[in-house]
Amino acid sequence: MGVYPIEPIEPVEGYAMEFEAADGAEDGSELEEWPDRYVFDIVMSAERLPSLILQLLGLMPAHVYPILDFIGHDEYREIDPYISYDQIGIDLLLDAIRQFRGFFCEDGMVGFGAMSESPFFYMFVDEHKILTLRVEPTLKDRIERLLEAFDLELCPEPVGVDAVAHEHRSVLILPAERPNALSAEEIVGHLRQEWRLILNVDPEQNLDEEGRELGLTAWRAVIRSGTGDDEPSRYAEILLRASNLAEAEEIAHSGVEELVEQPPDEDWMDMVVLALDRLGEERMLVLATTLGEDVASRATEKEPGVIHSRWLE
User: Fold this and answer.
1) Which among 59, 67, 52, 65 has a CA at the least distance from the CA of 138?
2) What integer pLDDT is reported at residue 13 of this predicted model?
3) Which of 144, 154, 167, 180 has the most crowded Cβ, counting Cβ within 10 A?
């Protein structure tokens, strides 16, 4: 597993359940954000978790809203939260879980799930591999019967790895022949396209986790680019400064175009952002110094734009 306890722990399989009343809209209107629901917090072994996930997805409607959390490398945010405002076919969710089973069900850097509105059904597996369900009351009995089939019992307090001090690690091992391949980031990039995910932060602001405005910051982007022909995709690393996410993406794309000997037409090159993380000044300077004195000097300039771009071979 990708979450390692660093204190003694005695896991307790089972589930806790409670009722939550409907949430009213923050503006005081009659609109309900989430209806009355039962919440199930489920702890079970990693070996059996995938089977339960597939069974639960079978209870959801044909189209759902996907959810993805990823513990990336952003200096000012622990988790990158991805959501979709578009429903996708449940088959796309099932295909991804089967294809990337180890990443979803064992990796300590990712959480994932789905939600439907009718019936209301929220399922999320966090980075500790604790499964949380929120379902409308009509589904309560079906969920209980399913958990009983997995020999999971109602208990006062299921105990998972999150109950003690622990470390998060990735279980993905990069092949020696591709030392620069960013496997986890590639999977996230693939899911962003397939599930139509967007990063759930304001692209026009640059805030830390406490909501403080950061202004101009350093960023590191990794972008996969290709022509769509038979030629393999290439990976570019861009170091830059920008005042918000939207500006950082624009500058990162321009950094890739600078690397191309003959810049293509807009429709000719496909570019996918695999990583776009903010860096602290110390981390940026260390990284820039490894790339040469000229890069280190440009890294001290406090202006929006590309600091350095290169292909990752």
Assistant:
1) 59
2) 86
3) 144
| Other C-beta atoms lying within 10 Å of the C-beta of residue 128 | 18
- Report whether 187 contacts 109 (CB < 8 A): no
User: Which residues of the chain carry a pLDDT beneath 50?
Assistant: 25-31, 164, 166, 180-182, 266-267
Q: What is the torsional sign of CA 132, 127, 196, 48? A: negative
Q: 16, 13, 87, 95: which is closest to 54 by C-alpha? A: 95
Whole-angstrom Cα Rg for the chain: 22
For the chain, give percent helix, strand, coil, nearest 5: 25, 30, 40
- Of 14, 13, 33, nearest to 23 by C-alpha is 33
pLDDT in tens, 172-222: 655 555 554 447 888 998 999 999 999 999 999 999 999 999 999 999 999
What are the structural domain ranges in the chain?
3-167, 201-312
- Residue 282: the pLDDT is 95
**Tokens encoding 81:** 């939260």
pTM: 0.85
CA-based angle 238:192:242, to the nearest 5?
30
Q: Residue 156: how many CB atoms within 10 A of its CB?
A: 7
Report yes or no: 36 and 19 within 8 Å, Cβ to Cβ: yes
For residue 231, count CB atoms less than 10 angstroms from its CB and return exposed for 0-12, middle for 13-18, buried for 19 or more: exposed
**pLDDT value of residue 170:** 66
Residue 119 preceded by cis peptide, ω within 30: yes
Residues 6+ apart with CB under 8 A from 115: 64, 65, 67, 121, 122, 123
Query: Token pair of 208, please?
Result: 């830390």
